[in-house]
Amino acid sequence: MKWWLGRKYNKTDVMWAFVMIAPNLLGLMFFYMWPVIQTFYFSFTEWGDFGKYHWAGLSNYETMLHDPDVWHTLRNTLLYTFLSVPISIALSIVVATLLNQKIKFVYVYRTLYFLPVVTMPAAVAMVWKWLFNSDYGLLNQLLHKLSIDGPMWLTDPMVAPFAVILVGVWSSIGYNMVIFLAGLQGISKSYYEAADLDGAGFIRKFWTITLPILSPTVFFASLISIINAFQVFDLIWMMIGDKNISLDTTQSLVYFFYEQAFVLNNEGYAAAVAMLLFALIMIVTIIQMKLQNKWVHYE
Amino acid sequence: MTSKMNAARIVIHVILIIGAVAMVFPFLWMVLTSLKTMEEATRVPIVFFPAQPVWANYSGVLQLLPFFEFFVNTVLVASAKVIGQLAFCSLAAYAFAKIDFPGKHLLFVLSLAVLMVPGQVYMLPQFLIMRDLHWLNTLKALIVPGLFSAFGMFMLRQFFMSLPNELAEAAKIDGCNQFKIYWRIMLPLTVPGLMAVAIFTMLASWNDLMWPLIVNSSPDKMTLAVGLSLLQGQFTTNFPVLMAGSVMATIPMLIIFIFFQRYFVEGISMTGSK
Question: Considering only Cβ atoms within 10 Å of each terminal Cβ, which end of chain B, N or C, has fewer?
């Protein structure tokens, strides 16, 4: 039986439903869904002057395979993601656990830890760039007091990726902390009371009760964080920029995409890079979903 | 037992305070630097406080760049997006949550798919649309694509789903149509959800750098984030002025955050728990 015969719909309700979803749905189709299809198509084209393009088959993907820049940006993006996300998640679990104890000023702490999340990344990058300044920056001046010669934080290609990661972690702790606090508040007190009777200490309770029950939240938070980290752009654009010799070890996939699409006018190539990013995010999401059964405990 | 617990509390506070200092110090340093002279800012050994606050750094920013215009543009763009998303997303969210209609599941999954796609995948065609509409270097380019959102719709749908259907029965018997039920009965009950969506949209719009960078290059149509990057380009080493600009660009959002903190936290916890 056809679906429209199988169910009775109220005609006026259906009419209203379509009127109500139309604006958002048409907007999403025109500005988001159709462009995704277009980008997919563009990734098989080559662009010339004046926005003219022609079919180029798989050539963009082939170029990508042999382009050392793509491999560097891929390496940088993966390094940034898989270093900053675990550190940020671990630290924010610690902070959330501490805030979940019966202590005073929880509200104040939460506000302070959350501040970096609401601050414009462009401004965050400027302040850190200043803190990292190798001659007059606060960090190196303090290190100097301890008789340590501070590194060239942003202009030493070996150090710069880690400086960017530090800022990435700093600005994401607050967000994850709020997610974990919500998760922790959902844990029933009775588990802890039972553990208290057994004489379990703080650390033991954390490993045997808190972390297992929190694991679905950890799973969700890491997935979101990884997806965000894959798209890092603002920090690198503002802190490093294209005149810095560290660009080679710091530029991310999205930075590379931006340069190709909007500075160098290699639109077809940029589209292929965007598809690569898309594929990466899909792969990580699928892997996470599969691994989920191994370490996530649902009550 | 109690002294042991007190000791534990002190340890917890010490750890939290160290962390909090690390979180807040960059802001403090930003403000302190913005009030120093160039000489004070770059003196070795370091000086923490300016001998005399130099407000001229702030007027310096205002003289060198149309910062006030950036501010107005940023506010306009953010407000327009908030209003558009609240209207369009809540309408669609209500229909998806409370009305039975053919093709509902398919259309919902289709819009959710947008959430999975990283922004860069649709950015280039979006730029071409803006160019073809002759919207580059206008506020329209910043506003219009952001009037629609899969995220906002998804969040509000969760809110509508949590409202019992019985609320609408009486109104239905009285002959109210779905729009009236949405407008008079359901919408007023989702105010916390609307606030959360408004706050998220506002924040994302205020802080966004990449899209404004791509579509608007003329200074009178720029937003604060792009303005900051312009400032950095012009005054690479004038740290006090750069910091003054950063303070001015971030303060409005920080104030909004302090007043509406509850909604930030609720919104994030909500996305996290479902």
Answer: N
